[in-house]
Amino acid sequence: MIKPLYGAEPELVENLASFSRQVYNAPLQIVCGVQSSTDSAVEIVNQVKTEHPDVDLTLVSNAARHGENPKISNIINIMPFVRNGIIILSDSDIRVDAHYVGRVVAALQQPGVGLVTCLYRGRAVSGAWSRLAAAAVDLHFLPGVLVGTALGLAKPCFGSTIALRAETLQRIGGFDAFADTLADDYAMGEAVRGLGLEVAIAPFVVGHTFAETSFAELFAHELRWVRTIRLVDPWGYAGSIVTHPLPFALAALVLSGFSITAGIFVVMTLACRTLLSIQVAGIPGGSGSSIALVPVRDLLSFVVFVVSFVSGKVSWRGRRYEINADGSMKHM
């Protein structure tokens, strides 16, 4: 397993520890990567190694840069230390259960499957802002992907999990082929499909942890996220405006002079969104229900959606990037 790390986020200890508790009857190697020996994540990796001495856990520190994408650059530096023929790449903010690796490998061994990815739920770890961030996944991202894949409109591949064989990775050009790509996970999925292989979604959900402590942090993260989606699938993203019913219901209420009919429409919209929150809360991997956050989350998501069309530039870990038409990124 490969884990690119950046800084000691509050949730990183438990996230990394969850990968160290795997019940898997085969050799398992975890390789973490940082780009500086002074990165605060180093201390956390060492802590997990101490707490799980039987786990084959390696830390790679290498400042070499390969292209514009910092995550892919980190991964390229990690790869010389990877020994196994099956590679599972997972972002640092993902938390899993003890049978994660076994189930991912089982899915990868199905006929015709070249890559396995995982859907995820939001998991808040540090207060109101992180709960609001996690609710974006539960109330917008996850339902949208489920509907899109069911209708054949979405072909996803997520950084939460990218599992593939070493020979498949070599056939698509290795990680070097994605060194300048913003949506590297999506591009890897497309490259594997280009080989005539299937990108399978594993039949379970992992947890995506959020530790935002301010509105500015939350908004910048979500804006980069949705701009990435817009650049990958501009028409599909534009069409997703229909997934924001509450702002339109409220606008109809005001424009109608607060008519009873429009008021009923608002109530029905809130009821449907609340029911969705209850249904998603029943899926393992998250941090409970987002019922109380439904109105605020829906209105904020609409604001992020509108602002995402203002510019194609994104901010990522303190650096500004301009995104080209082909999805490649350039540091400003």
Account of the 3D structure:
This protein is α/β, with parallel strands linked by helices and 332 residues long. It has a domain at 93-247 and 267-331: Alpha-Beta Complex (Spore Coat Polysaccharide Biosynthesis Protein SpsA, Chain A), CATH 3.90.550. 45% of the residues lie in helices and 18% in strands. It contains twelve helices and eleven strands. It has helices spanning 12-20, 41-51, 70-78, 100-108, 128-150, 166-171, 184-193, 215-232, 234-239, 245-255, 260-281, 294-307; strands spanning 2-4, 29-34, 56-61, 86-89, 94-95, 113-124, 162-165, 198-210, 314-316, 319-323, 329-331. A three-stranded parallel sheet has the order 1-2-3, sandwiched between helices. Strands 5-8-6 form a three-stranded mixed sheet. Strands 9-10-11 form a three-stranded antiparallel sheet. Strand 10 and strand 11 (329-331) form a beta hairpin. Helix 5 packs across helix 12 (294-307). 39% of the residues are buried. The model has no long low-confidence stretch (mean pLDDT 90).
